[in-house]
Amino acid sequence: MVDRFFQPVSGMDLPRFAGVPSFMRLPHLGMDHPRIGDVQIGFVGLPWDGGVTNRSGARHGARQIRDLSTMVRAQHPVTGLRPFEAVNCADLGDVNPNPVDNGDTLRRFQDHFAGLRARGIRPIAVGGDHLCTLPILRALAADGPLGLVHFDSHTDLFPPYFGGSALTHGNPFRVAVEEGLLDPGRMVQIGIRGTMYDSADRDFARDHGIRIVTIEEMFDRGIPDVMAEAREIVGSGPAYLSYDIDFVDPSVAPGTGTPEWGGPNAYDAMCVVRECRGLNIVAADLVEVSPPLDPTGGTAWLAASLLFEILCVMVEAERKPTT
Amino acid sequence: MVDRFFQPVSGMDLPRFAGVPSFMRLPHLGMDHPRIGDVQIGFVGLPWDGGVTNRSGARHGARQIRDLSTMVRAQHPVTGLRPFEAVNCADLGDVNPNPVDNGDTLRRFQDHFAGLRARGIRPIAVGGDHLCTLPILRALAADGPLGLVHFDSHTDLFPPYFGGSALTHGNPFRVAVEEGLLDPGRMVQIGIRGTMYDSADRDFARDHGIRIVTIEEMFDRGIPDVMAEAREIVGSGPAYLSYDIDFVDPSVAPGTGTPEWGGPNAYDAMCVVRECRGLNIVAADLVEVSPPLDPTGGTAWLAASLLFEILCVMVEAERKPTT
Amino acid sequence: MVDRFFQPVSGMDLPRFAGVPSFMRLPHLGMDHPRIGDVQIGFVGLPWDGGVTNRSGARHGARQIRDLSTMVRAQHPVTGLRPFEAVNCADLGDVNPNPVDNGDTLRRFQDHFAGLRARGIRPIAVGGDHLCTLPILRALAADGPLGLVHFDSHTDLFPPYFGGSALTHGNPFRVAVEEGLLDPGRMVQIGIRGTMYDSADRDFARDHGIRIVTIEEMFDRGIPDVMAEAREIVGSGPAYLSYDIDFVDPSVAPGTGTPEWGGPNAYDAMCVVRECRGLNIVAADLVEVSPPLDPTGGTAWLAASLLFEILCVMVEAERKPTT
Amino acid sequence: MVDRFFQPVSGMDLPRFAGVPSFMRLPHLGMDHPRIGDVQIGFVGLPWDGGVTNRSGARHGARQIRDLSTMVRAQHPVTGLRPFEAVNCADLGDVNPNPVDNGDTLRRFQDHFAGLRARGIRPIAVGGDHLCTLPILRALAADGPLGLVHFDSHTDLFPPYFGGSALTHGNPFRVAVEEGLLDPGRMVQIGIRGTMYDSADRDFARDHGIRIVTIEEMFDRGIPDVMAEAREIVGSGPAYLSYDIDFVDPSVAPGTGTPEWGGPNAYDAMCVVRECRGLNIVAADLVEVSPPLDPTGGTAWLAASLLFEILCVMVEAERKPTT
Amino acid sequence: MVDRFFQPVSGMDLPRFAGVPSFMRLPHLGMDHPRIGDVQIGFVGLPWDGGVTNRSGARHGARQIRDLSTMVRAQHPVTGLRPFEAVNCADLGDVNPNPVDNGDTLRRFQDHFAGLRARGIRPIAVGGDHLCTLPILRALAADGPLGLVHFDSHTDLFPPYFGGSALTHGNPFRVAVEEGLLDPGRMVQIGIRGTMYDSADRDFARDHGIRIVTIEEMFDRGIPDVMAEAREIVGSGPAYLSYDIDFVDPSVAPGTGTPEWGGPNAYDAMCVVRECRGLNIVAADLVEVSPPLDPTGGTAWLAASLLFEILCVMVEAERKPTT
Amino acid sequence: MVDRFFQPVSGMDLPRFAGVPSFMRLPHLGMDHPRIGDVQIGFVGLPWDGGVTNRSGARHGARQIRDLSTMVRAQHPVTGLRPFEAVNCADLGDVNPNPVDNGDTLRRFQDHFAGLRARGIRPIAVGGDHLCTLPILRALAADGPLGLVHFDSHTDLFPPYFGGSALTHGNPFRVAVEEGLLDPGRMVQIGIRGTMYDSADRDFARDHGIRIVTIEEMFDRGIPDVMAEAREIVGSGPAYLSYDIDFVDPSVAPGTGTPEWGGPNAYDAMCVVRECRGLNIVAADLVEVSPPLDPTGGTAWLAASLLFEILCVMVEAERKPTT
Predict the structure, then answer these.
(1) CA distance C200 to B185
(2) Which residues make up the binding site for Mn(2+) (chains A, B, C, D, E, F) (predicted)?
(3) DSSP element (H, E) containing E19
(4) Where does E21-164 have alpha helices with state H?
(5) pTM of the predicted protein model
(6) A86 backbone dihedrals φ, ψ, rounded to 5°
(7) pLDDT one digit per residue (tens) for chain C, 323 residues
(8) What DSSP element (H or E) covers C205?
(9) CA-based nearest residue in chain C for residue D25
(10) Three-class SS of residue C121?
(11) What integer pLDDT is reported at residue C321 of this predicted model?
């Protein structure tokens, strides 16, 4: 039974450039809305870039992605899935950050996602920089470490920056492993490339058994083969999907703070998500979209398109009994 | 008594770049919302540019103005007025246009504003191109012609274009006079400039007694003097305020389809609205903001700032008994 | 015998950024020019986007493509063909649209192309949005339906929009089939992708025997294989080539109103045209280039490059006896 | 008697964004056109920036100004003059530069303007950088030195650059005085400002009796007073008007290579030309528009608007007996 | 005696677009350079925007201002001062911020400016956001509170944000007064405008005797009159000059995070600095230039031009005995 | 032994957007610096585009590449090479061009590179347009012709332009062969594509035995196979690597004056350099980056990434005995 309340506005009725822009044109619900209890998958904006060590702007990501996401339609072109009819989806608004206090923000985010978890809502977080992932994991891994499928050009397993700062967008997965939020044996990082400071991040991965697939390996073996291995690694347990937009080549996604040349094109960028079908994705994020660095808004439009792909994978997981 | 429901979100709580963007961060109400009956002044988006004869893009105006309007705060810097506390304001969303059928769109718009009028809501329409003004006037002038204070670089009193089309963004005030929606003796057009096709529009103005203040006259006499005359002309009866963003110099407001050099700067652009205090403005519009022509978004930010000025004038009128 | 009159200016003589920009630097001829009778292939600008349901700007396409087309040189790099020496080509200017009256514009366009047909000029239309194709087909299919090779991310076979509007840029091929202008059995649509409203367009295709090649199929089989099938379908009869720039990936062609991620790169975008050699293309269009959405002008430069490829295919067809 | 051949296309017939763009939508005539003998005032493009010592791009100026000039209409808003009906105007195309050989280019330009002079055509040159002025003066001052009214932020009276190069865009007026092409006692330079290398240019002016009006003096005295003096200085003899777009403040005209803050706004930028009425302007130029430095195209649109003002002054001079 | 070592490269020798860009093309000296002891005025970059509560990007300010500052020449156009010959100036590089730890950064900045003070170098700090001013004041006010001349559209006297954060770019002058770093009786804030949260900042000013000149007052009285009062207020004691680029109208300086419409134009923006002649400015800053928000780089070019004006005022103060 | 003096600043210490930007954050040394004798590989900026026949702007290339190159880190992701530790690298600044005198500039450049050769410094030149290569070759080929591996979309073997100019960016390799600076039998040009004037360049190549690999051949055979042949052709003798950024597809590198569609993506753009390992590259250049044509700066970031790849190949060659 399709719940009309949770259906997005159609571009056949209201042109896609019109209307107050919510994610995918879904209803925008505050946490005190009477229908909040019926939401199954919620988009959550994280307008914050306090973890950025390089070029900023990701604080504007969620809003611009909302804007461009109004061009998304209702049906997947390959599978035919109509996700908004299959499960109840909503735009849950943004979580209030404190732009001048990282510690405060991390607490606010963690509390918010703990609240969603308590309600049984599977979140799709829209960043924001990659440090956003850490408080989400802290909220969601309360019952045990999660698996991780991670698309990125960087491992984000780096040691502290600037003489001792361990909480930046370059460290979240290192910290999450150290805090026991992720199961390193169920982690895979795909698309890694770019010049390196040194080998500290890769040493950490090797020491903890984290699987890194460089871009060279991905292109050599092909996406289907790599993703088959990724599904094997992550297994059937609850898993987190983290998609840093700088996974994609900067010619496709210029709007990001730390781009690295030599990444996949848009077709491959979508294919890797489609290959996550079958995983039990309990939460996901898409991060590091920085609108001020993208004069056309194309990066946000790609992000919206990828969010639809992520949503479809999660809808399929939601409909099956979870472990 | 301040009604908390109708207060905008403060940038001291949620940073101004965050959140789903509604006009001025006001609550976004559909026409079926339980509080709709309490709205006194409503912002209405008109995402349509079907009347444009030149460069388009104004269909995107309302959305980008919403986005930038989240930088507006709660108090007027000169008068100290706190408009959102004085009257109940809301974002009433966009009216559905039909982008490929101008006649259909004009009917839809007229019907919508007739509905607002029936509810006693004073509308501030956010265009959209200048043809949007016509269906609003058709809806609101049901009891008799209105006065008009009109800021623009063009008179929009032109005869038909393209071999006979009389419903374009160059004609609305000619048609409105012909239809008896405006009282030509209570009309004033300020800021007129730019190369001319011929003198047909000015002949029409002269023949009907419409007062045109060219930019040369405005700069020569000064704004206070010109606006004193304008208030005299418009008088105390119900009046409409129409603000075409191309009134402002293109160095300040490049994001518009038919810019004309030699207009006022931003300070003057705001002053002319402040000088409308005392008029009984029953409805207003701000039109012709075309985001694709403005890489910085500054034009939309100016538009949002002007809308706040317009709102303050209307709030003061709302609080006084109207004639 | 090369006709000097019809040769473009060389960049070795006048730098390519100089001069009044006509298509390919060809002579610009009005319909009353004394040499009009000698034109064999004519570029025709259609500065109109009245059929657009989403983001506009294609009205500016023809002019910016003219501008960038002055970087095209005289010889094809692979075949060695020198098209301007092989047949007489010209820039025939723009057809006057009526930007505020779609019905009027459709009539004007149809009349114009009927006139070209009467003179035996094969047109290459430069849009403008995809609704432009409909009046061209109405003019050219007077003797019977044409075949179609169609590159696009959308089928443009959609049912009416906005409560009943069947003449938008989303409907031209549906209407053309219904009006008998195209032979559905000789139609192929290549590159189709993107989220879907529903399956109505694909149902129409299936019911009428129109062949759709999705982007997934195109990438899986490869362009040579797909295009061999396309040539088979279209056959040796007169055919129309329609190229929507949104066929190409948005990273390559951001300047279009309804981009869909996951399309071909520039090399493939040119290859598909080269693979049309052998078809009897009697007319063609390239549509949906929207300059305001492309800060670098790259999309128009790609369009100009594709127009050269299309021209070369048509020149080869022109030189052979047609069926 | 108005000559229909020389009338521009009206935006009431063909929308202003449409058509092959010539200056002001005038007929585009080559020097071998049958009507060339009837041209009285001709716009000439100079697509060259070989004299630039700083940021380049002025080679693209003429084309972009053509593009934007299609928004100019037929009648002056203040005087009511309809210049295209008063004298025969045309777009005479671009003069071929040699982008890699400055000496060759200077000769080509001089020859071309000598040819126009022989035909009695008064040229309005559209640059290109300010060195373009020198070959024009060499061609036109054959019978004796001209007067000069010069709007600029720089005197362009500098000594040689880079260890001995005297032919750059910083030197044309120094060289012209030295070559006897200009009468220093009839020269006035208005708007001069910006940080200085040293005082060499002002010393040259003082030594030769050239009048420099700094921006400080212009703002202190006001434009009418300054321009009255300028008319006095230039007198009734034949005079040249040279307008460097960097005269205008960079907020208004960012598209230029060497902008200097603190210049006039657009209104004043037009007023100074209007105040040239009564001078016997036999030729003029507008230079230093650099499109790659202006994302909105506004600078070119201002340039087109200024060219219309210049044209009107020249038309009035053309209609009166010259000294 | 001019010290050749401290002279900037001339654009007559190396074109202004060439070379590694240091501030004003001055020598770039680290703190361990052998000539550091001879520096009298040093430009210091502060690449940090950790205090921003709204749109960020000021971390990129110092670098882009360096880039554009290479267009500054050696001599003041009005006074004739050649500042680089009068005192020894240098680019002292950037101070290392910690982009993810505001407390750490504030300490680093304070320590650095304390070191400059110990060496007797008068700093001109180039931000960075306005919170940068606080650690500078903490370092420089060791011997007693300073006077302040402050150009801005905001008072930056606000109470804490986001539920208790008092160290943002909206608070530095409130905190500085509370810490006794500034003498409120010798403070003047000029150009204040824009919508207000409430009156808390103005109440603080009134209670402490800080003089606020709103933009309305500035325009009404004129700059000379206002600045005469400002000099009176600040007096002859050591004073700090703080210039927030958002003092200037957004049409002139779009590249800033919190623009407010209705500010001065570029001419006035420079005049207010010139009117500071006679003050004993011991240190200065120019802050809030955000390059990602300015597609043309014009804001940084204005900032560089203003820095030259500030430098000239400080050079004149440096040459006179200080109180 | 790593020489600390020659190590770049780490982004772990100073954020990558901070500091005065030198190439790769290396020390910036003038030719009179005491450590100049220890430099092994030097980056040299050539801020000049006097050879450009089409769209200019490459004069700004070196500076913007310096800016973006501060995002490069210290270690190669595939080979693990840490080039800055392996050999002493430095930024040697820009060579002074004369922007208005091509002959003078060519002499200055040649003299400068002769000086580097005398000191035994292997240069990596950063353009600037492709004519820059000629004076470098003139300086470096004093002992005999060099081999060449050349990535480009154009052969740059064209005959003279504009009626006789043989020294443009379209001719350097033709002239170099004619002057005996290159050994045509050891030359390979890869990636050639785009419409052609005629076949004059390819005839020259065939007549002299220069190997041209078109883009079609490169894509058909694959990069490893093509590059194996390239290494075979160039052999073990001293060779020059010339990389024109327009080798890369314009979707990836829009910031160049003469882009040609259908080139390689960023991954392939880097791979071709990696496949040069084993060649004895004694000098290299990267040219034709034109920042004004690239709103995002992405082209310069790609150029910086490619320069790192080129550096790594040269470091490996430097460490081995040369022939």
Answers:
(1) 55
(2) 130, 152, 154, 156, 244, 246
(3) none
(4) 61-69, 83-86, 102-119, 133-140
(5) 0.98
(6) -80, -40
(7) 799 999 999 999 999 999 999 999 999 999 999 999 999 999 999 999 999 999 999 999 999 999 999 999 999 999 999 999 999 999 999 999 999 999 999 999 999 999 999 999 999 999 999 999 999 999 999 889 999 999 999 999 999 999 999 999 999 999 999 999 999 999 999 999 999 999 999 999 999 999 999 999 999 999 999 999 999 999 999 999 999 999 999 999 999 999 999 999 999 999 999 999 999 999 999 999 999 999 999 999 999 999 999 999 999 987 765 44
(8) helix C200-208
(9) C20
(10) coil
(11) 54
Nearest of B205, B216, B302 to residue B260 by alpha carbon: B216
How far is B232 from D280, CA to CA, in rounded Å? 45
Per the structure block, which two tokens stand in for B112? Answer: 């919508």
Predicted ipTM of the assembly: 0.96
What one-letter code names the amino acid at D19? Answer: G
Task: Show the tokens assigned to F32.
Answer: 């009179």
Q: How many CB pairs under 8 A join B and C?
A: 66
* Chain position carrying tokens 């909220």: A139
Q: How far is D105 from D102, CA to CA, in rounded Å?
A: 5
> What residues in D contact B251, CB-CB < 8 Å?
249, 251-252, 265-266, 298
Tell me the CA end-to-end span of chain F in Å, nearest whole number.
25
Distance in angstroms (rounded) separating the CA atoms of residues D81 and D75: 6
Answer yes or no: are the C-beta atoms of E288 and E256 closer than 8 Å.
yes
Residues 212-271 on C with a CB inside 8 Å of A are 214-216, 219, 249-251, 254, 258-263, 265
Chains in touch with A (3+ beta-carbon pairs under 8 Å) read B, C, E, F
Looking at residue E8, the DSSP 8-state letter turns out to be P
Cα separation of E78 and E312, whole Å?
11
- Reading the block at residue C59, the tokens are 């009205």
The per-residue b/e assignment along B180-202, b for 16 or more CB within 10 angstroms, e otherwise, is ebbbbebbbbbbbbbbbbbeebb
Distance from CA of D5 to the nearest CA of F (A): 34
Of how many residues is chain D composed? 323
In a 10 Å sphere around its CB, with 0-12 CB exposed, 13-18 middle and 19+ buried, how is residue C207 labelled? exposed
Tell me which residues of chain A have a pLDDT lower than 50.
322-323
Considering chain E, what percentage of its residues have pLDDT values greater than 90?
97
Q: Is C214 exposed, middle or buried (0-12, 13-18, 19+ CB in 10 A)?
A: middle
Summarize pLDDT for E221-243 with one digit per residue, the tens: 999 999 999 999 999 999 999 99
- For chain A, state the CA radius of gyration: 18
Gap between the Cα atoms of A41 and A91, Å rounded = 9
Q: Take residue B253 and report the two structure tokens written for it.
A: 């407001």
For residues E166 and F271, give the distance between their C-alpha atoms in angstroms, rounded to a whole number. Answer: 51
Tokens of D96: 């071929």
* Per-residue model confidence as pLDDT tens digits over D108-128: 999 999 999 999 999 999 999
- The Cα of A57 is separated from the nearest Cα of chain B by a number of Å equal to 11
Known binding residues of A are 130, 152, 154, 156, 244, 246
The residue with tokens 């000039």 is: D69
Bridge partners, B248 (sequence order): none
Domain range B4-319, CATH class: alpha beta
- Closest CA of chain D from F63, distance in Å: 13
Domains of chain A, residue spans: 4-319
Locate the chain E residue with the closest alpha carbon to B9. Answer: E197
Euclidean distance between CA atoms B15 and E55, whole angstroms = 9
Model confidence at F242: pLDDT above 90? yes
The answer to whether the CB of F86 falls within 8 A of the CB of F319 is yes
- CA distances B317 to B119, E286, F120, Å, are 18, 42, 82
The amino acid that residue C104 corresponds to is: D
DSSP E178-242: HTTSEEEEEEEEEEE-S-BS-SHHHHHHHHHT-EEEEHHHHHHH-HHHHHHHHHHHHTTSEEEEE
